[in-house]
Amino acid sequence: MPELELTTILLLALAGLTAGWVDAVVGGGGLIQLPALLLTPGITPLQALATNKVASIIGTSVSATTYYRRLQPDLTTALPAAFAALVGAFGGAALASQIPAAAFRPIIVVVLVGVLALVLARPRLGRVTELRWEGNRHRWTAAGIGLVIGGYDGLLGPGTGTFLVLALVGLLGYAFLPASAIAKIVNLATNAGALIFFIPHGAVLWQLGLVVGAANLVGAYIGARMAIRNGSAFVRVVLVVVVAGLLIRLGYDVVAGWTS
User: Fold this and answer.
1) How far apart are the two ends of the chain, measured CA to CA in Å?
2) Which keywords describe this protein according to UniProt (predicted)?
3) Distance CA 246, CA 248 (A)
4) What's the rounded Cα separation, in Å, for the pair 212 and 52?
5) Please, are residues 67 and 181 in contact by the beta-carbon 8 Å criterion?
């Protein structure tokens, strides 16, 4: 691990705290935490990605536990999606060094524009749970969501929790709050899947990951309790803000790549 100034460590901890809160409410904490790690002197992009997963899995464990105790999320959805997401994240992490993230960003930007337009155009979306299917069709769709978004998380990362919430609401018919609860369980698996690949390759900076993870844990606990207390309407507002932020961030990366 490179020698870091105390100010740098404190700023990274603050990024972890904020990211944990955002992730617990609606996902998308990687918008804050991963860029902070990428900007840290002496850390390679692969180390930043791997260390981000360590910090994220600590916070996600707390928020997933908090949601589970308070809301009892539907495990017939969460478990198939989580297993598929673990497999997808491992595969995505393995591809991370082979396929440039820039190749995927234009596609993600287009998807985000559509998602933001859909959420704003349908204010009642995600207010109540109205499941579209039952039985095997429901479970296979959940597994497909986990596999695709898990692959994205292992490969690129930012916005994974947000994409999970949106898919659970838009494709399966959950309200925003139960979707967030299920997304935390699935996101826990995507982080684990990526770490299964990263740890043997020595990419994790453990000391830094644990420091940022401790701050992420505090933010995750506060965020999960706020989401549970304020309900789906609160989650929807935070989701719109996070999607807009993700769109600006990735859109800037795309434009910068075209002009460089």
Assistant:
1) 31
2) Cell membrane, Membrane, Transmembrane, Transmembrane helix, Transport
3) 5
4) 8
5) yes
Give the tokens for residue 72: 């009892």
Helices (H), the chain: 6-26, 30-38, 45-71, 75-95, 105-121, 135-155, 160-167, 176-198, 206-259
Per-residue pLDDT of the chain (260 residues; tens, 9 = 90+): 667 778 888 999 998 999 899 888 877 787 788 878 877 888 887 788 889 889 999 999 999 999 898 888 888 889 999 999 999 888 887 776 676 656 666 766 776 777 677 777 777 766 788 888 888 899 999 999 999 998 888 777 767 888 888 899 989 989 888 898 899 999 888 888 888 888 888 888 899 999 999 999 999 999 999 988 888 788 788 878 877 877 787 777 777 767 76
CA–CA dist 102, 178 (Å, integer): 33
DSSP state of 156: T
Three-state SS annotation for 72-139: CCCHHHHHHHHHHHHHHHHHHHHHCCCCCHHHCHHHHHHHHHHHHHHHHHCCCCCCCCCCCCCHHHHH
> Virtual CA dihedral for 238, 126, 148, 152, nearest 10 degrees?
-10
- For the record, the structure tokens of 35 come out as 């860029």
Amino acid at 46: L
Place of tokens 């603050």: 14
Compute the CA torsion angle 98, 61, 81, 134 (nearest 10 deg): -160
User: What 3-state class would DSSP assign to 27?
Assistant: coil
